[in-house]
Amino acid sequence: MVCADLSRVEEIYAPASIYPAVQNLLLAAADLGYGSCLTTGLTTFGIDRVREQLALPNTMLPMAAVYLGRPAKKLSPPRRRPATSMTFRDRFGNPW
């Protein structure tokens, strides 16, 4: 569970620190051969239960759950659409 410490940062600013840190965690895990899954569903829809189960103080705000593990089989790299199919110049729909 990734939490923001609201005694150190205002809630509105927490995502700006938390999510880049989580991205770095996921990249490091992949480099070490771990598979990962990031979800914010638990923290969005079950925040009270998360706080209760983990005995979190009120100053700790759960923001994401990160699951890590060794893949049972080697996975192929994800397929990606070309960037040109998703990026536009000056306005939406204008190809780069």
From TrEMBL:
Gene3D superfamilies for the chain: NADH Oxidase
GO molecular function per UniProt: oxidoreductase activity
Residues of the Nitroreductase domain: 8-69
Region (Disordered) residue spans: 74-96
Name used for this protein in its record: Nitroreductase family protein
Species per Swiss-Prot/TrEMBL record: Mycobacterium xenopi 4042
